[in-house]
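Can anyone check this?
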Amino acid sequence: MLLLPSPPPTRFPSYNLSSLVLRYHRIIQPPLLAATTSSAIATTSGAATQYSKPQNECGSSGDTNSVPNRRYDFTPLLRFLSSSESDYDSDVEVESAPPTSLELNEFQLAESYRAVPAPLWHSLLKSMCSDSASIGTAYSLVTWLQRHNLCFSYELLYSILIHALGRSEKLYEAFLLSQRQTLTPLTYNALIGACARNDDLEKALNLMSRMRSDGYPSDFVNYSFIIQSLTRTNRIDSSMLQKIYAEIESDKIELDGHLLNDITVGFAKSGDVNRALYFLAMAQGNGLSPKTATLVTVITALGNAGRTTEAEAIFEELKEGGLTPRTKAYNALLKGYVKTGSLKDAEFIVSEMEKNGFSPDEHTYSLLIDAYANAGRWESARIVLKEMEASDVRPNSYVFSRILASYRDRGEWQKSFQVLREMKNCGVSPDRHFYNVMIDTFGKYNCLDHALATFDRMRMEGIQPDVVTWNTLIDCHCKSGHHNKAEELFEEMQESGCSPCTTTYNIMINSFGEQGRWEDVKTLLGKMKSQGLLPNVVTYTTLVDIYGQSGRFNDAIECLEVMKAAGLKPSSTMYNALINAYAQRGLSEQAINAFRVMRADGLKPSLLVLNSLINAFGEDRRDAEAFSVLQYMKENDLKPDVVTYTTLMKALIRVEKFDKVPAVYEEMILSGCTPDRKARGMLRSALRYMKHTLKS
């Protein structure tokens, strides 16, 4: 149903129309004005000639089936519009009204096309909009049709134009165009789609809200566009997707296969694997077949979560459903095996992949090398590198950065030079990512000279440091206590034209806090906000930690409240920082209060938090309460670790209950915890005091 009022009829001078229609091809032949004009006509010539054929040659789909056989040559019209395009463009903001007087040529042209049915105008416009070069002429066509009352379904014409402008990344022009007509469901949908395609989610969501307030329900396509945009820009998170799904249910929209696929992929990529599996099961329960890409995404998410058994089940399901797993699916499962350290399974899946006729690609080899490097089998990793060369798959810098990262994580930083040599032997040049990993490796083991030398070498090779490079270098100097050098690097970063990010400011806030430079902390926060960077959860956690460690508990509590007011949810790590700060000063009552607030915020206490609480009671000489926390752990299926038992032994020593320490040490061993040096030291201290007491 058309929602726009029909334009008023227009009176024209009386002419002999039959003779005009027969002669209009000879009358209107204006020359082309510019190169752009000729290109627009060239682009649309296919569309113009398409409708110069009889209707039975135009195709049999869509509304054009009902159109009688006629010849329509649109070339003269397109030439006229191209030559007059600037005149029509100047009236973008002005409503096109029927003319009261016309040039004879234009009138004759309009009358010659009066018999063209609306479906053919729609098809012509779609053809023109398929190329961005002819969008200007397409817009002139819509304006011209409205000006002469030749096609009354302008709503569809405008939605086609808006869709084309969105596809050409001309969102501003699309919004200007939308102001020419009252927004209807069709134009709303076109605008929402244009915004989503251009990743302007704020506008898309606002339009959906406005559409709902105008009494028009959104359809499933709009929600698909929104979810796809969130997924494409890596801005999707589970809570946001849950809100979108609640709106879908509220609008009573029936989920089709496309939308269910998008929702499943969205939850999988947000890390909420359980909900992804729920919607996958919903699709299958409704008799819908999920896309191969959807199943691969779910397999990847399960692999990332270490849930390889479920990943295997979906992989088998993919095969049983008649779909042939390809390299991407095998790689998704392989990634899960690598993450869980299942080397045999990783080798098997690569062998299975080759047996089924799929050659490993660069990603396959990278994952396999990662698996061998994690297992400490450097020789096997080198064999895979040789296989890559034999298969004409050249290893890239990322492969070597993964090998380097595995050595870093195992503490074998000295092998960095060996990896670099092997890399050069393969003819691969280090890139920025490789150098970032190398700087991080040296920084983690306090080899700051090597880190700075790598940084200089990187720049000498013409590789510009990015924000990750600077953050890594500044952070390793802060952690080593070289705060002055860290501040120098922070200034150098800005002078080089690299803008600090939120992480950079978090590192420097922590550095200034450790030095007790509270005014500088406030200055940094102000500078951060002036650059449009909002404090995140890590920022507030850092502030709570530095304020707590220095005994500025009022400031720490204030940060907690400001964070909540900003709509951010405090994390378990933040409460642990606060409880730990109270613990170190023996303020057990404040620590237990912070624990209660944490529980009230709906956060489940972690082992780290409970260990800090034990320490708080121990420092306050309240050993009975410390052991009640141990009991709480056991009742809530939290396995105590070596830190738990060591902290309990320290609490007993503080209240001089030396005779109870050996029993705690024995319970630690029986629970499967391996005592570390600190735990053994606690036991020796207790036994020494007991021996001294017996002698005296």
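Reply from J.R.: I decoded it. The longest helix spans residues 677-695.
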